[in-house]
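Handout, section 4.2: multi-component inputs.
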Amino acid sequence: MHHQHRKALRPVLGAGTGILLTSGLLVACGTGPVSGPAGATTAHTAGGHVYVTNHLDNTLSVINSQTNRVTATVPAGTAPEGVAVTPDHGHVYIADNGSGQVSVLDTRTDKITATVPVGKAPSGVGLSPDGRHLYVANGGSDSVSVLDTRTNRVTATIPVGRSPVSVAVTRDGTTAYVANEGSASLSVISTRTSRVIRALPAGQYPVAVAVAPDGDSAYVANEVNASVSVVSARTGTITATVPTGQGPFGVTLAPSGQSAYAAILGPGNVSAISTRTHRIRGTVNVGPPQTDPFNIAVTSSAVYVTDQGAGTLTVIDPKALKVAATITVGNSPYGVAVDP
Amino acid sequence: MTGQTPPEQQDRRDGGGCPAGGFGRRSFLQGAAATGFAATVAGNRSPPAGRKQGTLDAPAFAGEPQNAAAVPFYGEHQAGIVNPPPDQRQAVATFSAFDVTAASRGELTDLFRTLTAQAAFLTAGGRAPTAPPGSPQPDDGVMGPQVPADALTVTVGAGASLFDGRYGLGERKPVQLVTMTPFRHDNLSPALSDGDLLIQLCAGSRDTAVHALLDIIFHTRGAMTPRWSINGLRAPPRPVGVSRDFFGFKDGIANPDPTSTAQMNQWVWVQPDTAEPAWATGGTYQVVRIVRFDVQQWQGVPLAQQERIFGRRKVSGAPMYALDANASDLLDPVYTNDPHGLITPLHSHIRLANPQTPQTAATSTILRRSYEYQHSPDTGGTPDVGHAFCCFQRHLNTYIAMQTRLEDELLVPYITPRGGGYFFALPGVRNDRDYYARGLLT
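Output:
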């Protein structure tokens, strides 16, 4: 577990993002969420928290991952959806779908400290591995906003496909994959140039995307054709289609890269897909119909899934593939992020 | 008008197993037909308080057809709202609105007492009351000598007009109760709209509902007169799950859980210590809308477009993300990740009813309990079929907000709301000493 307190103390990873940083935004460094008093750490910055956006009551639930208890319920923006936490645990970024903004939460105080206008109906978010850039899929304006997390300003707005609702950044930070719900495609963004460098095929209505550690294989949840597609950036083709049951709404890779976890809303399942065989190696039912598992976050020891209908966060033991805990959160929980 | 009043002893309920014991004079009853049966009725009918219902009072006649068991009449809430689920045992319904003609508050009280007595008997079933030779018959005999319970429920609601100056009830009107005003595309007919009272009859068989309606009209004549009525049916599963409307779509899927007391208290039942008058606790606002369907134009619409108009799959009733024809209609439509409405159109019926946004979360949950009607053909020779939409909610404004959103729905060209009204379904009758609206009137 990391114990870095401030992102400013971390080395900047990835040449591409470093260049972007120095090319125009150093001037704003002092206004960003940078250093506080030395040693002013809390349990938050020490990690061990799960963050859940509650779409219908405009809140963020903060959960202690050791106790599985909600430690705070924070007023967030309007219709909060995608959520990401920085690698240093210091800040949480929330896409406010209803207001076209990103809210920035300071985890020391559990308060929103900045609100950044982005595009219309922002939904999914993805952070670069160094935490320096947030990619925001603006589902309502068919674009991705790039937000500099030091300045909390948008540095680029990238046109992508129709109705982008999910974005994932590769572990080397060079590429962002965007799922275009309305185009049955992925847009591949070069983080260095902030441009789309290619489009990849997906299934019908791709609504979630995750990237394998190799940076080549993208896993795509196709909401309307009951499958997860595996797309190779190298070949530009769909290399596998994994039947999942009706309504795959979320997909995330395990830190090990050995499994992809998919949230299947219809049957209320979370399925673990082997990234080696592209077969489902196990399925966990998280509740009866209308539980509605939706988005997923994964650590080496837990799989977290938001249940929109039930108003809960399910914690799954990834080794046993069993439900370890069910935590009541807010109204229609949407996104989930966990301290890396 | 003879002004004749039945002899006191004929009207008394002596508590010997009778509902609403200690009746006052039913002063509105007019004429000879009113006499002669009440005492006989009193001796025959209805379970005593506290008796478990579900069986008929008298031994069944040999060869009697098996009808559904009785739905308990007494309780905190009226039956016919949550209990029983309409798909289970109640295939037919009649919604009948009445104008109250009682001359005084006392007569209004008598009316509610009479309604209570008739409803308690009809819903429990039992030996049809008889009269001495030469006297008028208290039961029309439509159901034979043994009236089956047949899962009948009698649900009584009050319209805003009951709270006008006539009975001095203005101060006690439920705070949100108003007379229905037309929505943008409504074509309301006064002959099909509003009323002082609404009586919803749901039953297993049509004759049960007809008998109950005629019985109630007979026993309350002089105190209220029929204003409008609509008969509906609830189709059996075709082939599974929730029943279909006459557009061929499954209807009434999205409901709060009727088995959850917490959900019913949140969304359906008026709660104590609120802005509502104390007597209204346990009641609920009822909306009925008679919505004509243009089925001929509808049949010309391709399937895929029909599904986009409703926001559900036609065959399965499942959400748009489910392509499997065998998908369950219980799957939740979730479109929070569909900002352009590419999967579930923004102006589809279900998405406007519940847009799944924070701004609309408080006005998106109602308890639907609708039936389908058929009058066809109408005088113009075209089919007159449609929907006897019925819903219950703790706040009438919830429905009004939802229906205002639906003014923009894609279904508008295919439907014409023709009538109905807003009512307050009264709290339940607690026991055989209680009666409808007692809290309102005392």
